[in-house]
Design brief:
Layout (H helix, E strand, L loop, with lengths): L14 H4 L2 H33 L5 H25 L20 E4 L6 H8 L4 E4 L1 H4 L5 H6 L3 E2 L5 H16 L4 E3 L17 H9 L3 E9 L18 E10 L8 H15 L18
Parallel strand pairs: 1-4, 1-5, 2-3, 2-4
Antiparallel strand pairs: 5-6
């Protein structure tokens, strides 16, 4: 009787044997696209935007000029992804439905490109950005030229500063964009919403505009890294979802956050809305 033979697992087959050639090509193009994005961001940060700022004007004029340049660059970034069959998306056709005047804009965050998709479609808007990005060498100067808001590190002092800076932008007439999960969403779901965006709206007495970002099949997500290209070209879109007014909630930002989360869950297929626990932390992003 022959003894059983135990074979040690061999090395994994190369990527080219696991996926079709088109997927391998899209992985290469994705790497190239993001390398170009960061190189372009470096040029915008330290060459283009400082030169554009020399034209003068008041703060809002300089901010509008800087954001118009960056908006065009983000549109080209999305064009490149569309032309390379990496993502079916065109921010030029996106209709966000923002009201005239200041508001707080809230969006879920399923992919790495939701921020650029919204900023490529929006008018001049201040975005609350993660602290490490804001203070980084690559994009920090770009974010400051565009008068975005440093999201800080989550301390009480940082949270108070973010709320104050957001109030300053709203008072100047700008919408403020917040991704209230604070990180990319889980696949077909949401992380608990932080209350900061809704507290901004309550204090400034402005509406909250809800935007829904969708991407199918998932790509550039926490669970779908850039080097795992799906078999089909993903479709990405951002659409107007709803508008909330603080007066409808008696100025209760926690109730607004819970109501917003329920509206998102109603539109995200296959995921039941959980209990709205975990929404009580007062954090801005």
């Amino acid at each position: 009787m022959l003894a059983a033979t135990h074979l040690a697992p061999g090395p994994e087959p190369p990527l080219s044997l696991l996926v079709p050639a088109g997927q391998v090509l899209r992985v290469v193009l994705t790497a190239w696209t993001f390398a170009t994005f960061y190189l372009g961001g470096l040029m915008l940060s330290w060459v283009v935007l400082p030169l554009a700022g020399l034209r003068g004007g008041d703060r809002l004029a300089r901010v509008a000029r800087a954001q118009a340049i960056v908006r065009g660059a983000f549109r080209l970034f999305h064009d490149g992804m569309r032309w390379g069959f990496l993502l079916k998306a065109d921010p030029r056709s996106t209709r966000l439905g923002l009201p005239a005047g200041p508001c707080v804009v809230v969006c879920n965050h399923p992919t790495l490109v939701d921020v650029t998709a919204v900023l490529a479609a929006a008018p001049t808007v201040a975005c609350v950005v993660k602290g490490p990005l804001f203070r980084g060498l690559l994009l920090g100067n770009l974010l400051r030229h565009c008068w975005h808001v440093d999201g800080g590190s989550g301390t009480s002092a940082d949270n108070a500063r973010v709320l104050a800076e957001a109030a300053e932008r709203l008072a100047a007439g700008l919408p403020v964009l917040v991704f209230p999960e604070g990180t990319r969403s889980p696949e077909n779901g949401l992380h608990p919403f932080k209350r900061g965006a809704f507290e901004m709206a309550v204090r400034a007495r402005v509406p909250v505009v809800l935007l829904l970002a969708r991407c199918q099949p998932p790509v550039l997500a926490k669970t779908a890294p850039w080097y795992r290209a799906p078999r089909t070209v993903p479709f990405h879109a951002v659409e107007h979802l709803n508008v909330l007014h603080s007066a409808e909630f008696s100025g209760d930002s926690k109730a607004m956050a819970a109501a917003a989360a329920r509206l998102y869950y109603a539109r995200i297929e296959g995921v039941p809305a959980p209990a709205m626990a975990g929404l009580a932390t007062l954090q801005p992003a």
